């Protein structure tokens, strides 16, 4: 059965409305997509909340537990996707300098930390960091120390 219908007043087709102060307001379903494409909003296709950045609607949460100096991958690269970091907590066990990176590109300058001094970036609706497409989100440590914490992120094309 086709989803499209024509409406002629008095023909008997029922249209969903909400009666507000004796005025009927038509109820509609939200769809999204590029020109010529429409997808119903669903858990598989959630409403995009930032133009140009389709949202999965859910953040992925992973524990951070890396040890060593140099580059340590926090979120692996995914083909044709960027990673947007919305929350981050890193706690080095000993003094070190940290640099956050997208692949080989530094996203921060050198950040000096004392032992147990946290780097805490809380959720505020916009990502703190965005990697390039096909690039991992990396922390570089100047010393071989244990770094614990968590990261919350989403990926999309």
Structure keywords:
Jelly Rolls; 157 residues; mainly beta; single chain
Describe this structure in words.
The strands form three sheets. Strands 5, 6, 7, 8, 9, 10, 11 and 12 form an eight-stranded antiparallel beta sheet that branches. This protein has a two-stranded antiparallel ribbon with strand order 1-2. By secondary structure, the protein is mainly β. Strand 1 (17-20) and strand 2 form a beta hairpin. The two termini are 34 Å apart. The chain has strands at 17-20, 23-26, 31-32, 39-40, 60-75, 82-92, 96-102, 105-106, 111-113, 119-121, 129-130, 137-156.
- Amount of beta strand: over 45%
Cα Rg: 23 Å
Specify the biggest β-sheet.
8 strands, antiparallel
- Say what the CATH topology of the domain at 60-156 is: Jelly Rolls
Order of helices and strands: EEEEEEEEEEEE
What is the subunit arrangement here? Answer: single chain
Q: CATH architecture of the domain at 60-156, please? A: Sandwich
């Amino acid at each position: 059965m086709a989803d499209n219908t024509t409406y002629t007043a008095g023909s008997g087709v029922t249209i969903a409305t909400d009666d507000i102060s004796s005025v009927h307001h038509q109820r509609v379903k939200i769809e999204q997509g590029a020109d010529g494409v429409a997808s119903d909003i669903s858990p598989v296709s959630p409403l995009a909340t930032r133009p140009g950045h389709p949202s999965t609607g859910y953040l992925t949460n992973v524990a951070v537990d890396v040890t060593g100096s140099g580059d340590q991958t926090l979120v692996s690269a995914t083909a044709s996707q960027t990673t947007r970091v919305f929350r981050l907590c890193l706690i080095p066990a000993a003094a070190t300098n940290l640099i956050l990176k997208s692949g080989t590109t530094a996203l921060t300058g050198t950040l000096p930390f004392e032992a147990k001094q946290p780097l805490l970036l809380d959720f505020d609706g916009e990502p703190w960091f965005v990697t390039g497409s096909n690039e991992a989100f990396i922390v570089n440590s100047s010393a071989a120390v244990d770094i614990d914490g968590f990261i919350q992120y989403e990926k999309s094309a």
